[in-house]
Specification:
Blueprint lengths: L2 H16 L3 H10 L7 H5 L4 H16 L3 H5 L1 H4 L8 H15 L4 H5 L7 H27 L2
Helix pairs in contact: 1-4, 2-4, 4-7, 7-9
């Protein structure tokens, strides 16, 4: 998908999210994993309802291990350097859910963010991921 197509699709999906059509958008992402390419545009949209809707859809797709969820990672990682702290914080949260421990190095960089709210979100997400990783490794060590 080229940049213009990506922007057009993102605006179309953003309008659906703004209209609270979450189930429809989730179905679109399930049917077309290529839509993961617009996830960064949706998560950085100026409309809060669009950002919240995109977060909800991506979280749902992650629970289902849908291809669009993991496909969104490279389009969400640049948001960790976004000019707006709100977008950085939202991206941190979603990346923690989608990427798990794979994205810990990128998330740790935000422990130095100039916005203390982003630092707090980073700490929370990192602690949760590290706790899950420790639980997974202790579970594995107890398995015969």
């Amino acid at each position: 998908m080229n940049d213009q197509e990506r922007e057009e699709k993102a605006e179309s999906v953003a309008c659906m999210l703004d209209g609270k059509a979450l189930d429809h958008v989730a179905d679109l992402f399930r049917e077309n994993a290529e839509l993961a390419e617009i996830s960064g545009l949706l998560m950085s949209d100026e409309r809060m309802r669009v950002r919240l809707g995109a977060t909800a859809v991506l979280e749902e797709l992650a629970r289902e291990n849908a291809p669009a969820a993991s496909g969104a990672l490279p389009f969400l990682l640049p948001l960790l350097r976004h000019e707006h702290s709100l977008v950085r914080g939202d991206a941190l949260n979603v990346l923690g859910i989608l990427g798990g421990t794979k994205v810990l190095p990128e998330l740790r960089a935000l422990l130095q963010d100039p916005d203390p709210r982003v630092v707090e979100v980073a700490r929370d997400v990192i602690e949760e991921l590290e706790g899950e990783a420790a639980g997974d490794s202790s579970d594995r060590s107890e398995t015969p």
